[in-house]
Design a protein that fits this description.
Blueprint (H helix, E strand, L loop, with lengths): L1 E2 L9 E7 L4 H16 L5 E7 H4 L2 H12 L3 E7 L1 E4 L2 E4 L4 E7 L6 E9 L6 E3 L9 E7 L6 H11 L3 E7 L11 E3 L2 E3 L3 E6 L5 E6 L2 E3 L4 E7 L2 E5 L2 E2 H10 L3 H9 L1 E6 L12 E10 L4 E4 L8 E7 L1 H12 L6 E7 L3 H5 L4 H9 L4 E7 L2 E5 L2 E5 L3 E6 L1
Parallel strand pairs: 3-4, 10-11, 24-25
Antiparallel strand pairs: 1-2, 2-7, 3-7, 4-12, 5-6, 5-25, 8-9, 8-14, 10-14, 11-26, 12-13, 15-28, 16-23, 17-18, 17-23, 18-19, 18-22, 20-21, 20-23, 21-22, 24-28, 26-27
Helix pairs in contact: 1-3, 7-9
Amino acid sequence: MGQADGVNETGIRTAAALSEHPLATHAVGECVGQLLDIGGPSPDLVVLFVTAPQVGALEDISPAVAGLLDPGVLIGGSAVSVLAGSREVEEHAALAAFGLWTGSRRSVRSVRLTAAPTPEGPEFRGIDLLAGETGTLILVSDPFSFPVEAVLEELAVMAPDLTVIGGMASAARQRGGNRLLLDGEIHTDGAVGVLLDPSVPVRPVVSQGCRPFGEPQTVTRAERNIVYELAGRPALDRLLEQVERLDDADRALAAKGLHIGRVIDEHRDVFARGDFLVRGVVGADKAVGAIAIGDSVDIGTTVQFQVRDAESADEDLRSMMADRSANGALVFTCNGRGSALFGAPDHDATVIHEALGNAAVAGMFCAGEIGPIGGANFVHGFTASVALIG
C-alpha cells in the first residue's frame, strides 16, 4: 500500500508504505517502490519501522533503502507492531516506511543521543547540539538504556521551545535487543532522531485515551507524589465521593484502573482534553485520607480523576483528530492499544487515516510514547502521540 497528499502551499510532500513480505529484500523492494511512485527520489527524510522478525535483516535493509532512495536523513526503530495507512500489523513480519520531501535538506538534521550513568545522574551526549533549537524533534529511543524523562527535563531548560514527539522501541524485552537506525548506522542503545526546523509545519496530537469524571479540583496539600488534600478536604474522601456518583459501568472501570489528570498550563479558564497530563492512581492511605499518584504534584495544581477503556480511548482519539488536516502523520501508539485494547486491529491507524483523508500515515507501537501537553514534553503510556506534518 502507499499514499500521499500531494504538495500543498508549503511545498511539502509525504508518502507512506507497508510490506508484510517475510523476506527483507522483497519488503524493501515493495516499500521503496511505493515511495518512489508517490514522491520520487531523494526524500529529505525517510523513517523506517521494522518488527522483530525483520530486526536481523536491518543491516541489509538500511543500505538498500539508502542506496535506492538517497534520503537526506534516514532514521528508524524496531517495534513489536507497525502501522501504515489504515492498517496495523501486529506481532509478525512487516516493514513500514514514511517519506518526507520538504524542498530543502537544510530543514532536516539527524540527531544521536546517548546516556552514561554518573553518581550525579545520567550524562547525556549529543544533547548540547540541541541547545536553543526550535521546531520539532522526532525521537525514537531504547527503553532499557536511555532515560527519556530525564532528557526531556534537560531539554525543557536548554531548548524550551522545542517540541518532542516519538516513542520507545518495543521489539525486545531486554537490553540490547532493540535496534535504532540512523544514517546507515545501527545502534542498540540511546536514541536517534531527526530535527525538523520551524519551516516544516508540525502539529502534535496526544490522545491519552482517558475520560474525566467529577469536577476539577485544586490540590491544597501534597508532598512529592502524595496528595493529602483536594479543595481543603482529604483527597481520598473527595475521590470516594466522586466515584459514588458514577454509574455501575464507570465505577467498575475505576475499580480496575483509576487515573488522575493534572493541568500543565494553569492559565486557562476552562480545562478540556489535551490540558491534562494523565497518570495512574497507585495507592491510598485510609488512615490519613491520602492518595498516591504516579507523578509529583505541587500545591495549587488543578487535577481531575479519569477512567480509561476502549470506548473512552476511541472517543478521545476521534475528538482530538476532529477537523485536523495534514499532508502526513507519524504515529507513535502504545503497544497496550491495538487489538489488546480495542478487540480488533487497525483502530488507531484507521481513525487517523480517515480523519486526514488521503494523507500518508505510518508509525510504530511503542513501549512508551513522547508528546507535549500544555506546551511541555512528557513520556506517556497507553497513548497515541501523533506528529501531523504539512
